[in-house]
Design brief:
Elements: E1 13-16, H1 21-31, E2 39-44, H2 52-68, E3 72-79, E4 85-86, H3 88-93, H4 117-132, E5 141-144, E6 164-167, H5 183-192, H6 211-220, H7 222-241, H8 256-259, H9 270-274
């Protein structure tokens, strides 16, 4: 184990923590002093939106581990203009709401439409926190994302805002860490630290789920699967009533409940999965 690394000057440095395998590997690396981050920030899209197992892991395993190693782990919520907590599920199911912030399709194999969920409930939330904690254009925050070697195409040098610089410590992109870890390496690192490997993080209704994830959700969390189907069906009904086309959470042009058990391959194409949020989700 290397000696702990101290933060550089007064520059804000934090990990955008998703509660999944890769970002938990970053937590272990930080605890071991192998990466220069002592602050982790999780934008919680909502207790009614995130996979319950992810929130359970963060609160009962990751948070105590962070505290034990002197790491600050903050869980942030999106607040509306009245100062009340707003969740992604609540935004979508709000009576009278005509928008759907998650990506959807209008027909089989059509290009996805929409996609404001990551910006509204992750990057804007963490960005506001960063500004409140000293990040500026002159002294931008360094934000680490958990992208591993097997999904390196998701790493991007595009800046989310002018007060943040994004880096990828697991693969040494943005700043050199000497690491080139894939997902299995991350899982092994977590086990070696004495922690259970977390489940993949995502909203339970995320359209980027693979068919096996929907199948497992239907088996193990049938109430959540029914809620996802209800989301698709209710938004379709609202659109049809306004003379618009139905919407689909998969690329097959059929309702979710009809394809979840029979679809082969990805709900979205491999290219679309590689570009999923540039690392802000599913880590």
């Amino acid at each position: 184990m290397t000696a702990p690394i101290t933060e550089q000057g007064d520059q804000l440095r934090f990990v955008s923590y998703g509660g999944g395998v890769q970002s938990t590997a970053l937590l272990v690396l930080a605890a071991q002093g192998r990466i220069n981050f002592r602050t982790f920030v999780m934008a919680n899209v909502g207790d009614d939106s995130e996979m319950p197992a992810t929130l359970e892991y963060v609160r009962h395993i990751a948070a105590p581990f962070a505290a034990e190693h002197g790491i600050d782990l903050h869980m942030l919520n999106r607040l509306n203009r009245h100062g009340d907590v707003e969740t992604l599920w609540g935004r979508m199911m709000k009576p009278g709401s005509k928008s759907l912030p998650i990506p959807y399709r209008l027909s089989a194999n059509a290009a996805p439409v929409g996609r404001a969920c990551t910006q509204n409930f992750k990057t804007e939330v963490t960005g506001k926190w960063a500004k409140a904690n000293g990040a500026t254009k002159v002294n931008p925050a360094v934000v680490a994302l958990g992208i591993s070697r097997d999904e390196a195409s998701r790493a991007s040098n595009k800046r989310v805002s002018d007060h943040e610089i994004v880096v990828y410590p697991l693969i040494g992109v943005g700043e050199e860490t000497g690491l080139k870890l894939d997902r299995s390496d991350c899982a092994n690192l977590i086990r070696a630290a004495g922690l259970p490997v977390p489940p993949k993080s995502a909203c339970f209704f995320c359209p980027f789920h693979r068919p096996e994830v929907w199948d497992e959700l239907a088996r193990s969390e049938p109430e959540l699967f029914e809620k996802a189907c209800h989301l698709e069906e209710s938004k379709t009904a609202e659109r049809v009533a306004r003379g618009l086309d139905p919407i689909y959470l998969t690329r097959f042009g059929k309702p979710l409940r009809l394809v979840a058990s029979s679809a082969q391959g990805s709900m979205f194409s491999d290219e679309e999965l590689e570009n999923c949020d540039s690392g802000w989700c599913m880590t």
